[in-house]
Design goal:
This protein is about 55% helix and about 5% strand. The protein has about 220 residues and is mainly alpha-helical.
Length: about 220
């Protein structure tokens, strides 16, 4: 008996995948993505099997029974693109930009990853939330279009993180004060380390030189 291993057609790494392999088949649901999204917006809890049967009726002979699993994966990815809810528990920023929503990326997994990156500000957390591997993201960077959109998204994330650093350095944050097991007040704390880094970034000729001088001393 010859043992065989199933080669996954997904970008996610699984134990049955061979290194260096990636999905090369065309997405069978690419031409009906808008139709599927309209169905999900009208009924967010719509099951993939019900939707698949409806698609088979609307497009006779186009979708085979074996493609149900593919649709289930696509629905999971699209839903996480919109809400980032489900099994993946990741930190997220309170506000949300819409950079990747204005750019026409054909790959829905790329859109899912960039949307997650905008929310989480972290490659690892974005990959977990979008259900893609980090290796897929780095491979996508070879595409000039994707690389340009990612760079624009990265700048937005950097601006957000800088604003958060300024807030913690200048306005600080409140920490509760406890006495004998009960909270008796709050104290405002500031990050001197962040303030130093911000000053070195804004005026490196002054604060950067001072830091190097201390290090040399």
């Amino acid at each position: 008996m010859i043992a065989t291993a199933r080669i996954s057609t997904d970008d996610n790494y699984t134990k049955n995948c061979q290194p260096g392999r990636s999905r090369t088949r065309a997405d069978p649901f690419e031409k009906v993505q808008k139709e599927i999204r309209r169905q999900l917006q009208a009924n967010p809890n719509l099951q993939a099997k019900v939707l698949f049967i409806a698609l088979q009726r609307q497009h006779p002979g186009k979708f085979l029974d074996g493609q149900l699993r593919t649709l289930q994966r696509r629905l999971k990815s699209w839903r996480e693109t919109e809400s980032l809810v489900g099994k993946a528990r990741v930190p997220r920023r309170s506000d949300q930009t819409s950079i990747c929503g204005d750019v026409q990326l054909e790959n829905p997994r790329q859109r899912a990853f960039l949307s997650a990156f905008e929310r989480t500000c972290c490659i690892r957390w974005a990959a977990r939330a979008a259900c893609v591997s980090r290796e897929s993201h780095y491979r996508w960077l070879r595409d000039p279009t994707y690389a340009a959109v990612f760079e624009q998204t990265r700048r937005s994330v950097a601006d957000y993180l800088e604003a958060m650093a300024v807030e913690r350095a200048s306005e600080g944050w409140l920490e509760p004060v406890f006495y004998q097991g009960s909270q008796c007040g709050e104290v405002r704390k500031y990050s001197d380390g962040l303030m130093h880094l911000l000053l070195r970034g804004m005026m490196p000729e002054k604060y950067g030189a001072f830091g190097r001088g201390r290090a040399q001393a």
